[in-house]
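We now fix the convention by which a protein and its fold are recorded. The integers have meaning only within a learned vocabulary of local backbone shapes. A complete example follows; check for yourself that the lines match position by position.
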Amino acid sequence: MERLLDRLSGYFPAALATALPVAFLPIAGDSYILPRASLAIAGACLGLGLALVAGRAADLGELRWPVIASAVAALVAFALSISWPLSFAGSYARYESLPMRLSYLGLLVSAVWLLRDRLQRDWLVPGFVFGTCVASLEGVQQWAAHVAFRPDGNLGNANLLAALVAMAFPLAIQRTLRRDAFVFAWAVAIAVLIAGWWVTTSRSGAFAMLAGGLTLVVLGVRGRAVIWALIGSAGVIAIGMVALLASPLRVLNNDPPDLRLHLWGDGLRLIAARPLTGWGEDSTGLSFGHFLSTDYASLVTFDRVHSGLLDLTATQGLLGLVALSWVVVVVFRAAWRHRLDSDVAALAAALAGYSVWVFFNFDWAPVTGPFWLLAGTLWASTRPPHSWEGGPQGRRGISAAIAVLLVIAAVVFAAFPLLADVWYLRGRSDLAVRIDPLQAQYHWAIGTLPELRRAADFGETTPDLYVQLGDAELQAGNRAAAKRAYQRALEIDPYFTPASQRLSALGT
């Protein structure tokens, strides 16, 4: 029985990689991001639990200390967060909380532990590409139906679909080059992926696909030809940047490069205020307003710096940036050493594509979860084959106990939020707050003055809440409390007109 569990558990990462691009829940308030965020958390917990019970937990080698350092940095950032409820539960539709950040590491480790057989790794790549192709076809169908939004393949954001395509693209190319019995299917997958990216009109996705393809070329050549491949790749990227800046593409989707540059400048000032440990997971929405220098868009509040590098540093500080960079460097160094092994170059190219994409965007579970799964798959591909070991009875008992705790964590941090969001959509926020009590959105939805206060205490990052809270306080005769609520709205977004208008009406 244990040997059967050991063998079957190795296919769990493949099932997870297939589900992440396509999983959504129409009966939930957040139909797109939350289901995938819950899947990432549950996948990490269950994957680690399976590895422990099946006896697959093993030394991570050079990856051990970087992973530990990243987990410690996340815990330190949480301990010093400006809003621990927000950092623990995550802001609504974002969810980059402490449990999520730890789950990313859990996805990495569980993939390393579970994928100890080449056949099991071979199932993960097709599974991920298949899931991304399904999402791409959904995006194409949305484009054909002339939807009012940018086609997103039921991911909730067009750039998320582009990021998945950027990771799947080099994997499909490498499998096509094998010219095996499935070469036609892989060629069709490439066409579907390109169509999926095209309908998103994502510039960052285009550069990510380009980076992934060039990485595949560089890692595929041998000897001194690598130098020329690197020079050629740099030239291609430079030409692409010039073409972007000197053509109408610079204002595509009303998102000019100048906007990113201004945001990044403000983000650097945000980081400089708390450089070592950051402001806490998912807390940018509460802190960024103090450092915004421009009214970027009417009634739009930026809760991200829109650069994964800067967003990570803002929330976890230089400690988090250095620790996570350590993990990435170790993985890519292993990829370079084993670049001629089966699938290693393609997996590294997929990671490179995501890395370019996230430089212009930010971590988000639907794409960051697959990134860490693929990173774990790459590391597992560079490790020696693993033989089944039951382990001492006492140690197996401890592993089983930890596995039970991980299952409980999956229920609390993955299943409960989904159930709460289903109740929220049905107008039963009173039930939602019972099983997800720290999610400010549900308290806000109840709308009573005490619940609005709780939503504010739990770190709601939308200034509209504080205007509504101020109005309720004013109606209750609490003029000073109303003033504080309006001022807090302006701390989140100093250009939020409704709050400034109400303060003016108060004579402030």
Observations:
- Confidence is low (pLDDT under 50) at residues 387-394.
- The radius of gyration is 23 Å.
- Residues 80 and 280 are 7 Å apart (CA to CA).
- The first helix runs from residue 2 to 9.
